[in-house]
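Consider the subject:
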Amino acid sequence: MSRPSGFYSRPILLLSLTTLFWSGNTIAGKIAVGDVSPMAIVFIRWSLVCALMWTINGRAVVKHWADMRPQLSMIVVMAAFGFTGFNALLYFAAHQTTAVNIGILQGSIPMMVLIGALMVFKTPVSLQQFVGVLLTITGVLAVASNGDLATIANLEFNAGDGFMLLACVFYSGYTLALRERPKVPGLVFFTVTSTIAALVSIPFLIWESAAGALQWPNVVGWLICIYIALFPSFLSQVFFMRGVELIGPGRAGVFVNLIPIFSALLAVVLLGENFELYHGFALALVLGGIWVSERASAPKKQRRL
């Protein structure tokens, strides 16, 4: 018992593994091309997570159902966009762009959340935070244009990068909506949202089948789906919630910035993708923008740590 207890009390390790698993979702989506279609992954992923979560938290969901029911419509929208929509677009993006690009573009989510908080909640944005937003946007444009400014002027972008940017918008909206989510335990909320995500994916699965693009997983595809369900979905949520419990949401959220780094490294090492000079430039801009913004919003005592 001492070994699991020690592991479960190390926030840096738990949060680092969380972002490593989330980055692995990008790599798995790329590897899945040719072995299982995007909407099949989404449906199988959330169905497996749903079954696992109900086995663990079914009674707790029933206990807290009265607290969630008044906000059910909002929960449905959150799950549809943040879980089903985000992942579907990510897996579609994997068919048309590189895992390096997908990983770096995910670094735009914190800045999208900052902009969304300003627009929706009227949260003040300082000059330093605004500079951080500009740096991040510049990095995103560098990736989307493959480092060629002429493509920006001519509005020529890779469709996969466009899918990924839209996915980031969806997840940013989900993140903002978490402020108003029902006050129930995190795993209970995750059980309900994963269930809705599985149900919402069914019409899109039917659409994919009608379009002749549905591909049920082969052996490799099943391994990919199981990995995605267990690691980026289930364990990452458990580890992240535990990390937040140990060191608070502010410090835990900073670890999300590791996703572009881990994704780029895994793409180069596991997929053999090229890491171009403009990727390094874009990664520096994205992470630099996030750092500048977070320095502006962090308490003075925290900045000295």
User: Anything to note?
Assistant: The chain has a mean pLDDT of 85. DSSP finds 15 helices and no strands in the chain.
